[in-house]
Amino acid sequence: MEKCEIATALAGxxxxxSYSEAAILVCAALSALSAEVWPGRNxxxxxxxxxxxRFSSTPNIPMTISxxxxxxxxxxxxxxxxxKQLIDAFLPFSATRVVTxxxxxxxxxxxxSIYSDLTLKDIRKLSYACLLYEEVRxxxxxxxxxxxKADSWPMTMSEGQAVSYVNRLLSPGVxxxxxxIHFHVAWLAKLAVDIAANIDTHRATLPRQAPASWWxxxxx
Length: 220
Known about the structure:
Radius of gyration: 17 Å
Largest sheet: 2 strands, antiparallel
Number of domains: 1
Low-confidence stretches: none
Order of helices and strands: HHHHHHHHHEEH
Oligomer: single chain
Distance between the termini: 30 Å
């Protein structure tokens, strides 16, 4: 897709571009593709996420659960002692260590094997697919900046990553650090091209009716 090539160039600083313009362009392309598959109103979030998990050649990546963000969610909604189960199992690092998704993030089954007090609907809110929609696509569309759980600046230059984490203060003046998710543009562009190619192979069955239950709501 030509748009993804443009996004990659913008992310590299060409034409005065940045991560912001690149992310907006790729996410707009993904939104357009999802609307092509499931046309209709008031389903943008659900169909965007559904597109990533149904039409990607590697659905295990969009379905991956962000463990650092899940830990933070449990600390805020349950208790730090509950979150410690996940920390001990998947985050045995210093809080200042720079980590990638490959280092720490897991499948929902792996997470639930350690911490089973969440429903699929709850845990999938911390999936890459959902976080990409809420923290990047929606956040940039409405506020022209990443959401409260994401960052536009990567702390690692490691190549071939879908996701990495940025370590910074959770709030100004509060001496507590947290990890913020960063979606790498190269992976986003590759994902969009892959999904577009897969949609082309299913043209005869498009458009489709919205499912009775979307993946983000707990569907198999």
